[in-house]
Amino acid sequence: MTAAINLVADIGEVLVSEAEIAAKVADLGARIGADHGDRPLTLVSVLKGSLPFMADLMRAIPIPVRIDLMEVSSYGGTSTESSGLVRILKDLSASIEGEDVLIVEDIIDTGLTLNYLLRYLRGKKPRSLRICTLLDKPARRLVDIPVDYVGFTIPDQFVVGYGLDYGEFYRNLRFVGVLRPEVYSSPPE
Ligand code: 5GP
Q1: Structurally, how many domains does the chain consist of?
Q2: Would you please indicate which residues are annotated as catalytic (active-site) residues?
Q3: Which one of 109, 131, 147 would you pick to mutate in the ligand 1 pocket, going by the greatest count of ligand atoms within 8 A of its CB?
Q4: CA–CA distance, 106 with 94 (Å, rounded to integer)
């Protein structure tokens, strides 16, 4: 796959531009700050896809925040389909008991991954647990998840960029786009 990658030419359509992302991140950060007053907030982000969103969002929130990172991998699915079976590769590094926690996600598709994560984090007894996602793909939702902050609601298309990958590539694109179908027809090795 590596030799065939052409970051920009592989994108058929830009779904959310760099400028649209920047404006939305500023808006979300201001809203999150206003909703939490002067109570400190712990942002929990899920690697790797949420990395650029987390980095930008934390700097747009005007109140004290702590951050923590988890890494999960879903298994049993394909490169474009989630299975809902989740393995924790990296756990929180500090207790969130009694804290106001905001999960920072890149995308919610079926909701299976986040559903698992929600149950896991609730078990750690935070004071509150909210969710912020940059992208929401409601068409394929299998579990009902209360999402507090949504950046963009997008159609049922597999997207890459701004953290989101296909075969671990395309994460460094500054925008969110749809891959050309030809890229899927030669699946990643
Ligand atoms: P869910 O469990 O909600 O179906 O999916 C969660 C994970 O699947 C996301 O965190 C993301 O890693 C991956 N995913 C779902 N939809 C997309 C998509 O359109 N593009 C990419 N690159 N990953 C996706």
Answers
A1: 1
A2: 109
A3: 109
A4: 22
Cα of 107 from ligand 1 centre, angstroms: 6
Q: What is the pTM of this model?
A: 0.92
Site to substitute for ligand 1 among 107, 115, 116, most atoms within 8 A of C-beta: 107
Does the residue 187 lie in any domain?
Answer: no
| Spatial separation of the C-alpha atoms in residues 21 and 25, rounded to whole Å | 6
Q: What is the CATH number of the domain that holds 130?
A: 3.40.50.2020
Which residue lies with its CA nearest to atom 4 of ligand 1? Answer: 110
User: Which residues form the domain of 52?
Assistant: 19-154
Longest dimension (CA), the chain: 51
pLDDT along the chain (189 residues), means of 10: 75 97 98 91 96 98 97 71 79 97 96 93 97 96 95 95 95 96 70
- For atom 23 of ligand 1, the residue with the nearest CA is 164
Question: ∠2-16-108 over CA atoms, to 5°?
Answer: 80
What is the total residue count of the chain? Answer: 189
